[in-house]
Amino acid sequence: MLITLLKSKLHHARVTSCELEYNGSMTIDRDLMDLVKIQPYEKILVSNLANGERFETYAIEAPRGSRIICLNGATAHKGKTGDRLIIFAFGHFAPEEVKAHHPLIAILDAENRPES
Fold this sequence. Notes:
Elements: E1 3-14, E2 17-19, E3 25-29, H1 30-35, E4 43-48, E5 54-62, E6 69-72, E7 84-93, H2 95-98, E8 104-107
């Protein structure tokens, strides 16, 4: 049996844009993805602190250093520029891996830069 645990989290990611006419997904600065080991096309759960919306989508990479967090396609209806988000990624772990597991968590400032 595998246990689903939090693998990584981008906390307080700020939406920089919304692109309704896009096929879907969320665009995230590749540096931020690498920081918490979110892979391109990985399934993510997103929680919007401004309006309480929660939704699933997948991550696609924005240029490194761009600090872009963009809601694409239908997810553009779930928030607006300036909203703060929590972006979660989960993994499946064997019971013997659980005690040693520690999620990667990055808290971001208002400009989507990692704090400290």
